[in-house]
Amino acid sequence: CDVNECIVANARHCGECIQAGAKCGWCKDPDFLKQGETVTTRCDELQSLLKRGCDEAMIEDPHGEQVVHRNKTVTNRRKGAEKLNPEDITQIQPQKLSLTLRSGEPQSFDLKFKRAEDYPIDLYYLMDLSYSMKDDLENVKNLGTSLMLEMSKITSDFKIGFGSFVEKTVMPYISTTPAKLLNPCTGDQNCTSPFSYKHVLNLTSDGNQFNTLVGQQHISGNLDSPEGGFDAIMQVAVCGHHIGWRNVTRLLVFSTDAGFHFAGDGKLGGIVLPNDGKCHLENNVYTMSHYYDYPSIAHLVQKLSDNNIQTIFAVTEEFQPVYQELKNLIPKSAVGTLSANSSNVINLIIDAYNSLSSEVILENSKLPEGVTIAYTSRCKNGLVSEGENGRKCSNISIGDEVMFTISVTSKGCPKQVKPETIKIKPLGFTEEVEITLNFICECECHKDGVENSDLCHFGNGTYECGACKCNDGRVGRQCECSSNDVATEDMDRTCRKDNGTDICSNNGDCVCGTCECKKRDNPDERYSGQYCECDNFNCDRSGNKLCGGHGRCECRVCVCDPMWTGSACDCSLDNSTCMASNKQLCNGRGTCDCGVCKCTDPKFQGPTCETCPTCPGVCAQHKDCVQCRAFGTGEKKETCERDCSDFIMIKVKTRDKLPQPNDASYPVMHCKERDANDCWFYYTYAVNNNTEKEVHVVDALDCPAGPDITPIAVGVVAGIVLIGLALLLIWKLLMIIHDRREFAKFEKEKMNAKWDTGENPIYKSAVTTVVNPKYEGK
Fold first, then answer.
1. How far is 466 from 50, CA to CA, in rounded Å?
2. Integrin beta subunit VWA domain spans which residues (predicted)?
3. Could you give phi then psi for residue 263, rounded to 5 degrees?
4. Which of 6, 179, 223, 239 has the fewest C-beta atoms under 10 angstroms from its C-beta?
């Protein structure tokens, strides 16, 4: 279970208690403590104090608050409208408030941010003038007027400045021979003397002046590849009065084709002093490059952030990866690729500005010890983020509003209790929210305390908030003892019950001859009594609940609530739970014992002896509910969840898995029902020993087997074929018989025909033959 921070704090006065946690309260009722309870038990969670009998009006539970002192609404204006001074434009709301913090209790407020249109911009172009940047210098010479023209599409108030850098003017970064100091370039190249950083042009709205002064610049040179750009960035950031920075959007364009030196590299030139982060410009030239080391990246990040400067690194493609990594370390910075034409530089600056200005990132100043802050952002399109992502919103267009919920929490009180001030601002913007933090470290009743009160043993303590706050060297509930003699034998004797050997029943400590009982890990459990012989947790239990949940434990004896009795308060005197629907106690088939029916008729069960699982009609009564819950069919499938949730259903695989009458200690009714598809389903109905209706159902329906289509189809086809063959055979046989009869008939007629010899019967030959009777053939 969760630890009760109020008890763990062991607070001995009200101030300590309320610092322990937001849930903690202090009971200042003088008569609140029971015998044996220590003063620290006055500190507890509110509900626990109320439960223990402390009146709500006697509980000290102060709460924090917040007051907004300046809440100017964000500016809503359009480009071309009446021109406002930068200090009159508001992009963040509220601007000033105070929070009163109580330990552990967060105070939250909403912060609104809105990008103002036509917001002024200052841009400082810081350029590497080492020899390799010769071509780039030519491109920049006409940048002023072109950039002015393009930036006028974004803002009507734009200023531009210029500065250059090369390297520290010591070996081994440059050659220190006299000739090379005059002209570091080789051959007939005419170069200017090397320098660390030179401020050329204050921020101005005159683009022609920018072109003129930049056109007068000459290339210089150095020996090593990395440049001293970090020295220049530091001076640009901290020398605001030289540069002419206004409280507007500040952009620093850093243009180079090489890497950079950083903190520690100065040792190569014998320079060991860390960069002091201060302005050292004399006649617009950095004069301490030979004295201070290069700044670290973290140092630069701090100074750029403090001065609200957003950095744009315009570098050649070769060094893109290096400056991308640097960008990841410097908030509100961007990287663009430098190429050999001026329009590219302008596009790079505008793209980088749009990228930087479309993201808002909140940062806060250093927090006092014990104070934490949490952010939740509500950005465009309903996107909500928490944690580190809760600090920022992206893809913000001009005129968009975003909200941040900021929660400030204190843990405990600072060592020196005084108002603290923190500031929250969006990176790259000059506006900020100023928050004054006040801390609640004492209770209201503290101011009414009486020092050296007679109630605290002749003035040995301050009586405040219902208890004595003892002076140094004094102990006891009334500060009645000296801390030097709290463990004498005479005092211990009064802490032994019946002159026994156990001091405070081994449940407490003897302080000033009085038992102060130990605390339990469970804050709801307590020892009490003159000898800590009592407790509120060693009483009889019922249903695994102390005093059956129907009483309280006092000195190891249950004190039952009304209508309950028994050693564990588990016997109800209320007969309403035994009343059956027919208004009879236990349905006339049992007796009511401690609010529970004991059925005398073995057929009947249930809380009021009304359930008869083996009576006729039980199966038909539950058929529809079993059908809809097990198979999703039946008349009640549409109202199943509403009408059929009064029993526990358990599915089994086969009928032999169903409970059998001899297996259970309660009657079981076996049921067999048929559904609309003539399928049978089997289940059992019973009321178990916990008076719960229990149904076991076989999860597969027993449906009559349908005809086997294949043999039927084969039989039909075979029958048709056989019948066809038989008909053909019969037809053939009939034809044969018919043919034979016809042939016989023909033969008969043939034999009977007279013209069978082939002579015409009416033919008479023309020849007459006469035979000589006398002729003998000789």
1. 16
2. 13-443
3. -50, 130
4. 179
Distance CA 545, CA 524 (A): 14
Which pLDDT tens digit goes with each residue over 124-159? 999 988 887 887 777 787 788 888 888 888 888 899
CA 523 to chain centre: 31
The letter for the amino acid at 512 is C
Residue 131, token pair as written in the block: 């020899």
**Quick check: 330 and 262 in contact, CB under 8 A?**
no
Give the separation between CA 658 and CA 673, rounded to whole angstroms: 15
Tell me 354's DSSP state.
H
> Which tens digit of pLDDT belongs to each residue from 517-559?
888 877 778 888 888 888 888 999 988 889 988 998 988 899 9
Instruction: Identify the CATH number of the domain defined by range 129-358.
Output: 3.40.50.410
CATH topology classification for 618-698: Hormone receptor fold (4.10.1240)
Distance CA 149, CA 352 (A): 17
So what's the architecture of 541-572 in CATH?
Ribbon (2.10)
Pick from 628, 586, 622: nearest CA to 607: 586
Which strand (E) or helix (H) includes residue 249? Answer: strand 249-256
Distances, alpha carbon 455 to alpha carbons 77, 483, 633, in Å: 68, 19, 80
DSSP designation for 568? T
- Say which CATH superfamily domain 65-117+362-439 falls into: ntegrin, alpha v. Chain A, domain 3 (2.60.40.1510)
